[in-house]
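Q: I'm writing up a methods section and want to include an example of the input and output format. Could you take the sequence below and give the corresponding predicted structure tokens, formatted cleanly so I can copy it straight into the document?
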Amino acid sequence: MGDGSSRTISHLRIYGRWFVTIDGVECRKPGMIDIAMYNNNGDRDYIPSVLLGICEETNAGPIGKGDHTITVSIGRIGNNNIGAASSGWASTSILEVQEMCPQY
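A: Here is the clean output for your methods example:
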């Protein structure tokens, strides 16, 4: 789970995507952990946002025991312009990770 602010700014229409990877790979099951933001021509949007999800498995397979690197990145949506997307403007960003125990 992440908490903070997201920002996009451009003189074009832009699309930004904030997403989580585990050991450099996006989640596959039950789905990707991401949010997307659209900005119209000339807007300066600063939007409080929360990125929340559960990941049981990445494209590399099930997540095993041990140390892992969790990353929140900003990227494009398709071939659209990303503009000056950023995170954490005048805010505190929090990242919380909980290990889920399998149900037997």
